[in-house]
Amino acid sequence: MAIEVAGKRVLITGASSGIGAALARRLAGHGAVVGLVARRSERLAQVLADCHRTSPESTMWVADLGDAAAVDRLGLRAWDDLGGIDILVNNAAMPKRRVVEALDPAEVEAVMRVNFFAPMRLTLAILPRMLQRRHGVIVNVSSVGGRLGIVHETAYCASKFALCGWSESMAVDLHGTGVSVKLIEPGPVDTEIWDQPGSEEPLYQGPKVPAEEVAAGIIAALGGDHFEHYLPDMKAVVDAKNADIDTYIAGAAAMTTR
């Protein structure tokens, strides 16, 4: 373990499955008190039951992160119920695989509400309290799709690019305050995000890493000095795109036919 998490109070969104569930179980196993947030109450309760085996103080809240008013209420309620929040993990996300001209503006806005506005609102709700006591960690789980434009993922990538920019600027603003920011960039991870109603079938058919591997990487990142963490390490792909964006766009476009 790169950081001692025993006794830390951690709020995790999107905790009913995938990376969020894996992270909750792993943190609880090391003695952290985890607060779980998701829409699906039965799935969330199952994860909480697993966490209770090693962390009986852990709790959950059922919330729709697409509801701005619910998100605003959640932040301070979770702080009070947990007795403070040491680590906020903004992990919840929704996909929307669709060629750009087939998107409806309302669909794009729905993706932005969950993938960007909810993390923003939760952060701003609890940040003043973290700053007052001069310690805390904000972990934003973005995506390699927050650094690369992916074919048929304009809505998703827009939301994740926004989260990356928000996180980077926030890290600058908070430098030296005692509150740190960690940006997590998962690549292809074996979660339910690949099979979602209302999204096209994914073009990517390659290997995927287990959610548990990403969860372990997030915990390791908590104790390090670096801001950005690719899990698995796909930074070379991002660097290549940045070195020659036109070649990247042509290559990515060749993955599909119109």
Please give the largest β-sheet: 7 strands, parallel
Q: Give the end-to-end Cα distance, rounded to a whole number of Å.
A: 48 Å
Q: What is Rg?
A: 18 Å
> Average pLDDT across residues?
93
- Contiguous low-pLDDT stretches (5 residues minimum) are none
Per DSSP, what share of the residues sits in E-state strands of 2 or more residues? 15-25%
Number of helices: 8
What is the CATH-assigned architecture?
A: 3-Layer(aba) Sandwich
Structural class of the helix and strand makeup?
Answer: alpha/beta
CATH class: Alpha Beta
Tell me about this structure:
The protein is globular. It has a 7-stranded parallel beta sheet, with helices on both faces. Strands 7-8 form a two-stranded parallel sheet. The chain has one domain (9-253): 3-Layer(aba) Sandwich (Rossmann fold). By secondary structure, it is an alpha/beta fold. Helix content is 46%, strand content 16%.
